[in-house]
Amino acid sequence: MNALVSLPVATRRVYRLAFGMGLATLISYALMPDFASIFILLVLFIMIPPMPPPNAKALLKLLLILIISTSWGIFLGLTLSLIPTIGLILFGIGMVFTIGLGLKKPELGIVSMLFIVGQTIVAAMSLTSASLGIMMMVMMLGGFIFAFFMAWLSHLFLLRENTVENFVQPVQSNSKWIPIRATIIMLPPFLMVLQDLFFIPLLIKGSLLAQQIDKRSVKQQVIELMLATLVGVTVTIILWNVLSFWPNLIFFSLCLTLTVYLLACPLYKVWKSGYDFAFWQNALVTLIILIGPTVQDPVFSDDIQSKMWVRIGLFFSISLYSIMAVNILDTLYTLWRNNKKTKTQWTT
C-alpha cells in the first residue's frame, strides 16, 4: 500500500483503468456473455475520465436519468415505427439538446452520453421490437451499475483520488451551432442502424466524432483522426491474432489488461506523446468496440473475421465522413453567417 501511495496520480490512473477493464472483461464474459461487449464499453466510458467515481447519492441520480433516457428511447422507437417523420424530428430535437448539454458542461458528460444512448441504440432496438427495447433498457441499467461497481472497486484497491483534471474545456463560441452540426452528421449512421442493428458500433463511434470542435486545418484533422483509428485497429488485429493461439477467457482478460495499460500510459501523459487525450481515447474506444463483438462468439471462424474486417472498413469510413462533414458544414455555416452580416449592414 505504501508503494501505491508514492505513485504519481497519473500512474495510478493508468493502473486503475487497466485493472478495471481487465476485471470487467473477466466477469462480464463469464456471467453475461450476450451483453459483455456493451458492459465493458460502459466501464470504459465511466472509468476513462480522470476523476473519482460519483458517490452513492450521485449514482442514484444518474440511474434515474438513465431510466428517463432509455424510456425516451423506447418512446422514440415506437414513434419512428408509427410516424417516421415525427420520430426523426423528435430525434433531432433531443440530440441537439443532449449534445449541447455535454459540450457546455463537460462535467455532465456522463449524463449526455446516457441520453445519446437512449436516443440512438435503445430507439433503434425499440423500432425492431418493443420487447427488445425494454430488454436493452434493463441491460443498460444493469451494465451501468456494474460499470460503477468496477470503478469503485478499482479505486478501492488503487487508492481513491480527490483531484479532478479537465481534459475537455466547455465550448465558449458557436455553442448553438455545434450541437446542430453534430445532429446532422449523426443522422446517416442512425438511419443505417434503423435498417440493421449490425451498425450499432458505427453509431457509437460516430457520436464521438460528430462532437469534435477542432479548429485545425482539415488535412491535420484527417491525419490525426485516421491515425487514431489506425492505432485502435492495429492493436485490435494484434490482440485478435494473439488470442487465436489460446482462445481462453482468462488469457483474453490478461491480454486486454496489458493492452489497455499500454494505451492508457500516453492517454494520461505517463509516457510522452505528441497527441492529446482525445486521440488516445479514440484509439481505446475503437479497440473496445471492435474486439468486444468479435470475441463474443467463442468459435474463431472466417465469418467472424470477415465481420471484423467489415467493421474496420466502416470505422475508417465513418472517421473520414465525420471530419469531412464537420468541415463542409462549418464552411457553409460561416458563409451563411457572413452573408447574414452583409445583409444586416446593407439594411442599416
Description:
The chain is mainly α. The protein has one domain (2-347). It has 13 helices and no strands. The radius of gyration is 20 Å and the shape is globular. Mean pLDDT is 78; it is low at 169-173.
What is the count of structural domains? 1
Total E-strand runs: 0
Proportion of helical residues: over 70%
Gyration radius, in Å: 20 Å
Distance between the termini: 71 Å
Average pLDDT level: 78
Low-confidence stretches: 169-173
The quaternary structure here is single chain
Structural class: mainly alpha
Strand content: under 5%
User: Helical segment tally?
Assistant: 13
Tell the overall outline.
globular
Q: What's the main sheet like?
A: none
Order of helices and strands: HHHHHHHHHHHHH
Write the layout of secondary structure elements.
Elements: H1 2-5, H2 9-31, H3 36-47, H4 56-82, H5 84-104, H6 109-128, H7 130-157, H8 177-195, H9 200-209, H10 218-243, H11 249-267, H12 277-294, H13 302-347
Helix pairs in contact: 2-3, 2-7, 2-11, 3-7, 3-12, 4-5, 4-6, 4-7, 5-6, 5-8, 6-7, 6-9, 8-9, 8-13, 9-12, 9-13, 10-11, 10-12, 10-13, 11-12, 12-13
Short summary:
The protein is an all-alpha fold. It has one domain.
Relevant terms:
348 residues, mainly alpha, 13 helices, 78% helix
